[in-house]
């Protein structure tokens, strides 16, 4: 049985439900339609006794695998945010609801995180029961580049990284590979890219006693360690555990002997100064939150990204500079880290809704 929208292919083979993200020209960036299709399919399989587990992968221009998902459809976000399209609100509410469902899915949900896995792609994979990376994996939460913050539960899963690795990944948007993904608790296992097809196909022909047997089979078919050097967590902690954005940038810029410190400082100077303050607070608040409360906080934050200052959205401006006009010269406001007022970034954590009317009020963590 195969069900296909233009961008999502879903089928049941044997006892497993298979989902292929099928928008390769956009590196499988999630549209509102894709979010809705994914949610509806996962709900249907959740209560289907014939489906013991779900597996999800991406596709590339040459075929399947290759890239998982580059994130949300930022061109849509720019258009909707610029014109007041109400589907902007729908997109984030429904995407975060999908993220929550995946974190609490009652059956094994196996994510084949090959190639680019960024932004919204992390949102539909971090809640998986088994997160598989390959030597081609390029993982990041690069939202500060576009004046956004690592949403889709990013506060929750980045804050669970060891030490201050979450702060580093969230503030800089730096990309990591398979070895770091496993070390930072953002992946569970490694599988050579060339072996993904065999495991995917085996899931569709094997006979399993129950859902636990599917999970055990996948775990036994993958490796707990990945090849490659690891980032120096002590070096990351020394800087990114500091108490404020100002302290972090000062420490980096003062370390003139470290090429890493200098390049990291230069990268942070290119990000939205306002959003750096918002993101640091997000990660640190999220350490004390469950998934549902984190997603509610992020839903508040993303509303403010587009509407806190009418006509002055850092996110709309960041997307314009990166993906629309492509001048790579965003006009951030404020323009410098040193000029961000405390009341401006703190406003992102004030909910625009009373608790009972919050768009994600129904989300609960069991």
Automatic annotation (TrEMBL):
PANTHER family for this protein: 3-HYDROXYISOBUTYRYL-COA HYDROLASE, 3-HYDROXYISOBUTYRYL-COA HYDROLASE-RELATED
Native species: Comamonas kerstersii
Limits of the Enoyl-CoA hydratase/isomerase domain: 16-349
BP term (GO), one: L-valine catabolic process
Keywords associated with the record: Hydrolase
Record carries keyword Hydrolase: yes
NCBIfam families (UniProt xref): PRK05617.1
Keyword check for Nucleotide-binding: no
Protein's UniProt name: 3-hydroxyisobutyryl-CoA hydrolase
Pfam families found in the cross-reference section: ECH_2
GO molecular function: 3-hydroxyisobutyryl-CoA hydrolase activity
């Amino acid at each position: 049985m195969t069900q296909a929208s233009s961008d999502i292919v879903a089928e049941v083979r044997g006892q497993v439900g298979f989902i292929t993200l099928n928008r390769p020209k956009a590196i499988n960036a999630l549209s509102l339609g894709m979010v809705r299709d994914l949610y509806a399919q996962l709900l249907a399989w959740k209560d289907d006794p014939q489906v013991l587990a779900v597996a999800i992968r991406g596709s590339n221009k040459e075929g399947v695998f290759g890239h998982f998902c580059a994130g949300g459809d930022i061109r849509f976000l720019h258009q909707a945010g610029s014109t007041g399209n109400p589907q902007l609100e729908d997109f984030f509410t429904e995407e975060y609801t999908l993220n929550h469902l995946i974190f609490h899915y009652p059956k094994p949900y196996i994510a084949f995180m090959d190639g680019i896995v960024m932004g919204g792609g992390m949102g539909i994979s971090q809640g998986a029961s088994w997160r598989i990376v390959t030597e081609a994996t390029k993982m990041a939460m690069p939202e500060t580049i576009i004046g956004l913050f690592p949403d889709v539960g990013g506060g929750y899963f980045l804050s669970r990284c060891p030490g201050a690795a979450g702060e580093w990944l969230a503030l800089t948007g730096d990309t990591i590979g398979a070895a770091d993904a496993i070390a930072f608790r953002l992946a569970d296992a490694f599988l050579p890219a060339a072996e993904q097809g065999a495991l995917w196909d085996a899931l569709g022909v094997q006979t399993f006693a129950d859902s636990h047997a599917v999970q055990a089979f996948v775990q036994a078919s993958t490796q707990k360690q990945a090849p490659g050097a690891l980032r120096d967590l002590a070096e990351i902690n020394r800087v990114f555990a500091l108490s404020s954005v100002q302290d972090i940038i000062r420490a980096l810029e003062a370390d003139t002997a470290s090429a890493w410190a200098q390049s990291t400082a230069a990268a942070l100077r290119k990000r939205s100064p306002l959003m750096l303050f918002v993101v640091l607070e997000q990660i640190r608040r999220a350490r004390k939150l469950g998934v549902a409360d984190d997603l509610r906080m992020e839903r508040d934050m993303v509303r403010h990204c587009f509407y806190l200052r009418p006509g002055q959205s850092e996110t709309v401006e960041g997307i314009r500079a990166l993906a629309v006009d492509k001048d790579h010269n965003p006009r951030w406001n404020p323009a410098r880290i040193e000029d961000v007022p405390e009341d401006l970034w703190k406003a992102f954590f004030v909910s625009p809704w009373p608790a009972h009317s919050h768009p994600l009020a129904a989300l609960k963590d069991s």
